[in-house]
Amino acid sequence: MNDDSSSRIVAGLLDWISAAPAGARLPATRALVAEYEASPVTVQKALRTLSARGLIETRPGVGTFVRAVRTARPLDYSWQTVALRSPQHRLTEPSATMRSATPGAIALHAGYPDRELLPERLIRAALTRAGRSEVAVTRSPVAGLPELQSWFASELAAAMPVGVTPPTANDVIVLPGSQSGLSSTFRALVTAGQPLLIESPTYWGATLAAAQAGVQLVPVSSGPHGPDPDTLARAFEETGARAFYAQPNYANPTGAQWPKARAKEILDVVRAHGAFLIEDDWAHDFGITSDPTPVAAQDDAGHVVYLRSLTKSVSPSLRVAGVIARGPARERILADRSASSMYVSGILQAAALDVVTQPGWGTHLRGLRQQLLARRDLLVDSIRKHAPAAHITAIPHGGLNLWAQLADGVDLPRLVRECEDAGVLIASGSEWFPAEPSGTFVRLNYSGPNPGAFPEAARIIGQVLERLE
Length: 469
Ligand SMILES: Cc1ncc(COP(=O)(O)O)c(C=O)c1O
Fold this sequence. Notes:
Layout: H1 3-18, H2 29-36, H3 40-52, E1 56-59, E2 63-66, H4 79-84, E3 106-107, H5 120-132, H6 146-157, E4 172-175, H7 178-190, E5 195-200, H8 204-212, E6 216-223, E7 226-227, H9 229-239, E8 243-246, H10 260-272, E9 276-281, E10 304-309, E11 321-324, H11 328-340, H12 346-356, H13 359-386, E12 391-392, E13 401-406, H14 412-421, E14 424-425, E15 427-428, E16 440-445, H15 454-468
Parallel strand pairs: 3-14, 5-6, 5-8, 8-9, 9-10
Antiparallel strand pairs: 1-2, 4-11, 6-7, 10-11, 12-13, 13-16, 15-16
Helix pairs in contact: 1-3, 2-3, 5-12, 7-8, 7-11, 9-10, 13-15, 14-15
The protein binds pyridoxal-5'-phosphate.
Pyridoxal-5'-phosphate binds next to helix 7.
């Protein structure tokens, strides 16, 4: 044995390893002895060297293998800088609301309800049935399963007065969640470079989708009763916009619900400007002390493009929504959908339809209302008692969130960070403003896990606020 021949084997095996997949088995010692014309002792020495470098591992009686963990080396993607050029639209970080909570933290930051608020038994049974049915092995039509289209149409029709012509199943396009419906609607009906009026504050995902679609956002301030119709009319006139995105029922984040008279005035403004109202009815199933009243129920002339999501009320895992649009607008949205996702998984559609057509669905929704009421009131009482510096602007009649205003000058990133350090996740309100925030706000979601910890969470928020003021 000598060092030279051991180094020769190490060099040869390094070449071999660099071309081998992780987990590949090295040739047997006998084969290496023959290949390198070295003694078994020299081969063993070379293998020990490679093992010490963490490149291989020997499993006694089995063999020697390339290790799955490779030594890190810096990768060079700099060529992409030239290939990609500057981004066309603003790139944003993923929303803080989508962060997973660390175990043990009290999560008031997220937007999706805890599983105890979901119809779990109905979901599991529906998935089993869908898995056994034809849809498990067939392609769904581009616009969705006809039965689910009918269900979405009939839900809206049920809210319509006698004089308004209800939508048909054909007016419905099934979506893989309403987020992608927002993207499609903005791309198809507003188009890149054109203005879109949008409530402020509003859902961060809508501003994100609009930015990616290259749409120019024009914020219109909105209060507990929705936007002021005169301000909205002026914004249409000044910008020439032909669309307004809004959440008339239980808006995310404020919980605002437009009174019926206000909704009618706003629809009149939209009609007078030959425009679309893109109505996001994300919280239709989350009424607490009122019922949702879709503005779309007052329209049969195709002015309202209506998005209804089942993602949060059925299951975040059965991500299904519907958009109801009439006339050429529907064809434009459908063309965008078929280009971007072709069709929605039939299993998800069939399972979602199964859940919402079971007799247990109505019972579930009635129970959910009571649970949301108790959770909302507990969080309101806890904040008022332990964190009075967080002023709850209005108690929502539905939805999943409280919107609380803080004194101007409170350092929001620091508040969020220090609350997190103390075990409470809250969402900075800044994400919900399409432009500069008009004040200092936080959004507190009352549908997360462990509502029993709300008083403790409020105590922590109150203590951090006291420190910061
Ligand atoms: C107002 C609003 N619209 C749309 C969505 C997206 O819904 P989906 O999960 O169906 O894509 C959300 C989700 O948080 C939302 O809050």
